[in-house]
Amino acid sequence: MVDILHRVGIKTSNPEKVYEALTTIEGLAGWWTDDTKGSAEVGGVLEFRFPPGGFDMEVLEQRPSERVVWRVVDGPEEWIGTIVDWDLRQDGDYTIVLFKHQGWKEPVEFMHHCSTKWATYLMSLKSLVETGEGAPSPRDVHIAYPD
Amino acid sequence: MVDILHRVGIKTSNPEKVYEALTTIEGLAGWWTDDTKGSAEVGGVLEFRFPPGGFDMEVLEQRPSERVVWRVVDGPEEWIGTIVDWDLRQDGDYTIVLFKHQGWKEPVEFMHHCSTKWATYLMSLKSLVETGEGAPSPRDVHIAYPD
Fold first, then answer.
1. Which residue out of B3, B4, B6, B99 would a mutagenesis test of the A interface target, given it has the greatest number of A Cβ atoms within 10 Å?
2. Which chain A residue's Cα is nearest to B145?
3. Over the stretch B110-124, which tens digit does the pLDDT of each residue have?
4. CATH of the domain at A124
5. Partners of residue B123 in chain A, C-beta under 8 Å
6. Which residues cross the membrane (chains A, B) (predicted)?
7. Is residue B121 part of a domain?
């Protein structure tokens, strides 16, 4: 098993703003993809769609301003069954986001791609909270082509 | 052992341009840090410096337009002995860069940070080759503060 790991520091005194961006349809649509639907409650399934396809995530856990965990229940074969784990903590003027996309079976080339792409989406989340504007799909940062 | 993985596609018909950005002092200074010194030859040591510190990398391998490998010989404790591995291949109008920073002992918080920061520097490398201008330190993209 191999994992994708990331960390960003988001300048805000309100970790609730980061938590909302991870636990509401409107928030998720503001940084990951315009086309976000489904249920953001624990036990619900979030449906994220992008021009090339998408992911369905079951919400496993939500602890206000501390933790969000999803399990991938549909999407690319390599993603199914993997876990997306968000840990938040406040450090002065910053909310520190520790991100893990865990449980990849093999470090395939697609995993390299997803690691870089996650980084750009985390920067989009940071931008959304700090400035009010993220870069969700289809206005996302391109790291290759097509991506 | 855990690894940082990334992948970018750089729009160029000349993989040599990417290779040069990884194997010359001027190229490396164009995307990673202005303060790059040392020897870029196999067996030499590259010295990368940033406001908070730096890394010394022994050049282990160079295969034109295909592969570059460095070993960290000085820097933060978690980095020493780790391997930075660049694989290049041409795919149509793009040079595909597969990046690995291998051999971390533990998935510590600093590794999460370095993973995201590497992604932004790979985007800087992409920008340098595609547009002639990267975002090396101290004009780098900030993912937290200080970073």
1. B6
2. A9
3. 999 999 999 999 999
4. 3.30.530.20
5. 120, 141, 143
6. none
7. yes
Give domain status of residue B13, yes or no: yes
> A53-76: b or e for each residue (b if 16 or more CB lie within 10 Å)?
ebbbbbbeebeebebbbbbbeebe
**Mean of pLDDT values over B7-23:** 98
- Residue B82 is predicted with a pLDDT of 98
List the single residue in B6, B11, B144 with the smallest CB-CB distance to A115: B6
Give one DSSP letter per residue of A40-64, joined into a string: -STT-EEEEEETTEEEEEEEEEEET
Question: In this complex, which of A7, A11, A119 lies closest to B120 when CB atoms are compared?
Answer: A119
Say if the Cβ atoms of B120 and A122 lie within 8 Å: no
Q: Which residues contact A142 (CB under 8 A, 6 or more apart)?
A: none
Residue A93 lies inside a defined structural domain of this protein: yes
**Is there a contact between A111 and B5 if contact means CB atoms under 8 Å apart?**
yes
Q: Quick one: which H or E segment has residue B46?
A: strand B45-50
Provide the 3-class DSSP secondary structure of residue A6: strand
Does B81 fall in a domain?
Answer: yes
pTM metric for this prediction: 0.97
Of B116, B123, B147, Cβ closest to residue A143: B123
Q: Is the pLDDT of residue A146 over 80?
A: no
Cβ neighbours for B49, distance < 8 A, ≥ 6 positions apart: B33, B35, B36, B37
Q: Write the single-letter amino acid at A105.
A: K
Q: Least CA distance to B144: which residue of chain A? A: A9
* pLDDT tens, residue by residue, B76-110: 999 999 999 999 999 999 999 999 999 999 999 99
What average pLDDT does the segment A3-27 reach?
98
Domain coverage including residue B57: 2-131
Alpha-carbon gap: B10 to the closest alpha carbon of chain A (Å): 7
The reply to whether residue A96 touches residue B122, judged by beta carbons under 8 angstroms, is: no
Domains of chain A: total: 1
